[in-house]
Amino acid sequence: MAQLVYPINPDSLLADVDAARSMARNYAEAYQSASPYPHICIDNFLPEQVLENVLADLRNRPEKETTFARAQENKKVSYVPERLPAYTKNLFYALNSRPFILFLEEMTGIEGLIPDPFFFGAGVHETANGGHLDIHADFNLHSKMKVERRLNTLIYLNKDWREEWGGSFEIWDKEMKGKVHSFTPLFNRMVTFSTTSDSFHGNPSVVNHPEDKTRDSIALYYYTATWDESRKSHSTLFKPRPNSADKKDYAEIRRDVLREFTPPMLYRRIIGPLSRLGF
C-alpha cells in the first residue's frame, strides 16, 4: 500500500503538527517551482478510511445548497459543511485547523494562511453527467472577512474514475494559449494550487460516467490578511479556450461595469435583486 501523506487519525481526525510539517517539506520544492503557477497533485493523500467514511456519509446527501446551471458551469451542486453528516463536517473542521494550515504553509511557502470559518464557496462539490466547469480564475477577495484568497485545496472522491469519463482538472497557461497539465479526479488525489487573477484552471471536459455517477470533490480555500484596498476585487473570471465553443461570461462583464461606476454601498444593495432578474 502506498504511504499516505497527511498524518490524520481516521477516528479522531486529529493530526500531529510536527509530523504534518515534516511531511509537507517533502513537497515544498515541487510545489513552489511548478509551472505555470505553483501547484501540486498528490495521490494517497489521506488515510483511505477517512474518505471511505465520507463516502458513507454521502450516500444520503442533504438538501442542495447551491446549484449552478449556466453556460460556464452546469449541473454542478455544492453542499456546505454544516449540512453534511457529522464525520464529513468534522473533516472540514480538521482541514481548517492548525495542523493542516501549518502543513500548507510549509509546502507552499505562504506565511499567515487563514482558514475560512464561513466556508464561502467551499464544501462537497458534485458534478453530474453533462456537467462541467469552464476555465477560470477565482474571486480574489473574501467579501465578509476582507482577506485575500491565496490557495485552493481539492480532494477527489471518485473511485476507479477514468480519464475518458471527463471531469479532469486542467491547468492552463497565464495567456490562455494552451493546457499545461491535466489531472484525472481519482479517489484520494489532492490538488492544491495558488490562486491569482491569472491562475487559470477548471474542469471543462463534460462528465460522462457510463453508470451516471457524479464527479465529487472536497473543496477548501485559504486566505491571507494581505488585501490592499487600492486593489480591484473581482469575482470569477471565466476565459474561453481558444478554438472552443466556450461562452464569455457577459453577466459578469455587466456586473463589473456596474461595480466600477456605482458607489459600493449602493452596489451591495442592488446587485442581489439584479442578479435574480438575470442581470
UniProtKB/TrEMBL annotation:
<dbReference type="Pfam" id="PF13640">
    <property type="entry name" value="2OG-FeII_Oxy_3"/>
</dbReference>
<dbReference type="InterPro" id="IPR044862">
    <property type="entry name" value="Pro_4_hyd_alph_FE2OG_OXY"/>
</dbReference>
<dbReference type="InterPro" id="IPR051842">
    <property type="entry name" value="uS12_prolyl_hydroxylase"/>
</dbReference>
<protein>
    <submittedName>
        <fullName>Proline hydroxylase-like protein</fullName>
    </submittedName>
</protein>
<feature type="domain" description="Prolyl 4-hydroxylase alpha subunit Fe(2+) 2OG dioxygenase">
    <location>
        <begin position="124"/>
        <end position="223"/>
    </location>
</feature>
